[in-house]
Amino acid sequence: MNAVIMMMIGVSVIVFFIILSTLLWGIKNKQFDDDYKFTTLNDDEESLKDAIELENRKKQALEKRQNKK
Question: What DSSP character marks residue 41?
Answer without folding.
Answer: T
